[in-house]
């Protein structure tokens, strides 16, 4: 499950390795931390198989596994609660402590179940997943643009498709994906063969928002620095939308969470499948709106409906997002791709200078204001990311996630 | 029936006592003005019972009673029509004159009927009215905050409820209620235990708008002064909404008229029962929009729908107010209180600094503009309140109301 | 079929007469260009009847007739393709060339059919058309205001009705109609007997937008000058809406195309028949939005829905225009006139100073901004009208129209 911008900061708390007195929980942590002999053959085998995983299972899962491992090898949590600012330590301690009186046998069983699950879902074992199929279908049309690891970018008859392409991660945005989207927008904006660009996602999700694993190298000591860098990246990302010089269409092919929702207000036209949902849980994570949504959502929906979304985290269905004006049109999932392709083919034939100049006229009146709002939103988020409240909210989120 | 801000001024015209050649129509006017002997015992008894009323019956009723009393005691109106600027005199003369050739017997009968009605509805006789029940129900939860005569203010688990509490007056806003709402907003904004505030009404009405009895001490001579004071009060009232530093939720529990409607655009989230209606009859009363609605309603609804409401006084149903974006969500009346309480409980658990800072971010971008609009609206209203057109419109309204 | 502002410029390309080496295609062109003897009596008779037409058949039809005439008299197109900037020549050459190998007999037959059609539809022969009936109905109420050729302006009990009155041209706006609407707005704004004004169309159409025959005297040499004049006229036209000091109501009695759609956002209230449609094909004609729609449509509809209309030319039904907030209310066509008259009667009784001052308050906050946007939009359109892309888009449009 992916989140909003918060993850930029969260991830650092779970950073593993050089944290005094705390066992390492990195990709290879499980066999390294297995310093005690274990008697159960299955448990040992499971522990070994962890080292064969080719994908990071994510911090929630790793916290669960850490806790179970301790329960098996040590028993009920007997460590003192870490200090207030030892965020990683607290998260791990809580996960372990929450297991309470769980027996070693139970813990061993659950640990093995979790590993079995991870191995069964390892990408190496399932190269023909539906998401991958979708991505390869679109290979047949247009010319693929190289130089992207996390996107699939192609240009076909005037339409540049920028597809977030990490379907197994619900197209969550890690730092590299942010940078690549900035680059893809910049390039397609300058490419004379491109009439307009389309932002979409591979697989079942549009995008789950910020990726948990963004800032694995951040420690509590560098928290302020990391918040600054996160804010700077976010501001550049949003600016790339504000300054995009051609029509920008979002094809929301599935659920969207966090900045993939708020940035829709910076797209010009938004088509959505009826499977799409739109969720912006800023407040519950101790954070605040971004991508100019603090300014544009009230303009689009009226303050009464915008604030329910921005302040109280109301999750919208596709129909609700349409009724509120965030979405231009909703199509049944079965015909979504056909319907939008038909539209794109028509749009691509329109005089491109007119499109560019009209877009510039429409957005130009607000551009300075949008950059100003973007700056203020990012400044507030930088403050939020280092606030006690935000850290606690994220801790609580993870504590609840790490319960089995 | 309560109205818009106009009443601030209107009431002065009906002010009673030191107006040359005009009979007094105050709470105790009826037996004092009964200078002629009357033969009908029922009429005398009725007249006497008027003195036992514990609530002011409102100026419309008093005008009716004045006219009937004159018809019984004098007969058909024989007084000369008062001069152009004798507003009180004209209102009363019109009420009497409109009775035409009504016989004394008929007038006597109607007079007694009116008094019977008033007595039957006197609050002393019905302490267990639904409105009072509602108010006492909410006594059971949260701690009541003292120091309010016209509001019921309580704080419960982070939610401050500001309830307009004059149910027998349809929660109309007299001068004191304006001042108390300003005070309640200011206090709950500063109270660290309050996460957000809720504005609602006791009984069946949300609020009928400005109360007729606001400025009983105003005479035509002090009209300009009264308009200035009314404008100043209104501006401070609206500013208290603009500057409220936390989420402000409106729980519209029934019909709303005038400024209770327009001020919804300054609330952050608006929930309404399906019984609610939204009416802004500015133009028909010779007045103009307030509470930044001249600026915010077009933003929320689009100009085509906003202007029908602001210029032509279209009364909206709850569903229409929802469709136009003034209302966040509508609930069936039977479950309204439950539904919003459930939401409030969830909202109150959210990180409060995030809510406060996000609210500030969202509203902050417009705050200076809103104060400017508020100032301009109040200046225009001060001009309107002393205009011939406005005075005439209100006179016409009262003349039509005082007809039996 | 009438278009958007483009026609201002388009018409000059088809201007006929002093263009070297190109046959003349003006109202009387057909018998003048018939310099070769033709044997078929019907063809000759048809050719002669063209001279009796009292209405310009429009450039599309004239291009068709030109091509057919050449095919009859010369045969398959044997002229060299005109140079890139000879727009008139290219349009005519294309029309002729597109006939390919059509036989002379076929061409002769089609030519006669076209003329028969024109004669049958000549206004002189059908004075009792439904559109004229509508116009004469409204003669019965109110006093007609003289001095207008293309409008029917009347004032009745406080309501000034400004009716675009060229029903056989779908109320397309020629230069004179623009000037007359400016004049009618100015006059009714100053007329103390007028409470508010209503803009509507005679017959089945609201208005088809810019008229093709606006600038018949423009040659390619004076293109830049014509674009400047067109931009200046457009800017004054839009300014007359922005500055109109009273409520302005649009009664959209049928389909609307181009500036009659965009200027609705500058009206205060918009009522529409359910037969109305709203079409803004700027981009397909190489042009850009006008009448402040680049600023107001996103405010009204949200950017996602506005941009589909402004950039991609989505044609809206009456219900869609209502849902997007462009229209205040939709009525069944059968009762449309009754319903709006009932409303207008009520509105006209409202205090007129209040209406005027409230309107000024509501629109005043944005007036400077709107004038600025109007200026920028007109500057862009002037550039567009002389651009290769716009000219080509219009050529393509006409080429497709001139095919039989």
From TrEMBL, chains A, B, C:
Catalytic activity: (3E)-nonenoyl-CoA = (2E)-nonenoyl-CoA
Record's keyword terms, sorted: Isomerase, Peroxisome
Stretches that traverse the bilayer: none
Compartments where located: Peroxisome
GO molecular function, one term: fatty-acyl-CoA binding
Pfam families (alphabetical): ACBP, ECH_1
InterPro entries (UniProt xref): Acyl-CoA-binding_prot_CS, Acyl-CoA-binding_protein, Acyl-CoA-binding_sf, ClpP/crotonase-like_dom_sf, ECH/Chromodomain_protein, Enoyl-CoA_hydra/iso, Enoyl-CoA_hydra_C, FERM/acyl-CoA-bd_prot_sf
Domain (ACB) ranges: 39-124
GO CC annotations, alphabetized: mitochondrion; peroxisome
Keyword Transferase: no
The protein, known as: Delta(3),Delta(2)-enoyl-CoA isomerase
């Amino acid at each position: 499950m992916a989140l909003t911008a918060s993850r930029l900061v969260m991830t650092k708390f779970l950073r593993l390795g050089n944290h005094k007195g705390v066992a390492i929980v990195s990709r290879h942590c499980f066999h390294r931390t297995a310093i005690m002999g274990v008697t159960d053959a299955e448990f040992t085998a499971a522990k070994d198989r962890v080292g064969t995983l080719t994908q990071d299972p994510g911090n929630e899962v790793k916290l669960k596994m850490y806790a179970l491992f301790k329960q098996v090898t040590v028993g009920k949590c007997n460590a003192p609660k870490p200090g207030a600012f030892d965020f990683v330590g607290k998260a791990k301690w809580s996960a372990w402590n929450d297991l309470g009186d769980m027996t070693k046998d139970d813990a061993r069983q659950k640990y093995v179940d979790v590993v079995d699950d991870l191995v069964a879902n390892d990408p190496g074992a399932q190269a023909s997943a539906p998401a991958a199929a979708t991505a390869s279908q679109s290979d047949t049309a247009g010319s693929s643009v190289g130089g992207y690891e996390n996107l699939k970018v192609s240009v076909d008859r005037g339409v540049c498709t920028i597809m977030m392409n990490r379907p197994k991660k619900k197209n969550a945005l890690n730092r590299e994906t942010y940078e690549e989207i900035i680059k893809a927008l910049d390039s397609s904006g300058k490419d004379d063969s491109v009439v307009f660009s389309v932002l979409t996602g591979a697989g079942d999700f549009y995008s789950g928002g910020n990726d948990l694993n963004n800032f694995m190298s951040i420690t509590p000591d560098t928290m302020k620095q990391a918040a600054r860098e996160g804010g700077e990246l976010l501001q550049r990302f949003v600016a790339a939308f504000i300054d995009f010089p051609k029509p920008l269409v979002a094809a929301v092919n599935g659920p969207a969470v966090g900045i993939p929702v708020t940035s829709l207000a910076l797209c010009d036209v938004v088509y959505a499948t009826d499977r799409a949902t739109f969720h912006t849980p800023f407040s519950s994570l101790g954070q605040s709106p971004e991508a100019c949504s603090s300014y544009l959502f009230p303009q689009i929906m009226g303050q009464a409906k915008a604030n329910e979304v921005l302040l109280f985290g109301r999750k919208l269905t596709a129909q609700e997002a349409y009724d509120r004006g965030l979405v231009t049109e909703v199509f049944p999932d079965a015909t979504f791709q056909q319907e939008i392709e038909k539209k794109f083919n028509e749009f691509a034939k329109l005089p491109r200078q007119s499109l560019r100049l009209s877009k510039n006229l429409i957005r130009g009146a607000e551009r300075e204001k949008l950059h100003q709002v973007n700056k203020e939103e990012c400044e507030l988020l930088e403050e939020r990311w280092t606030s006690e409240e935000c850290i606690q909210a994220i801790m609580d989120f993870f504590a609840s996630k790490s319960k089995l």
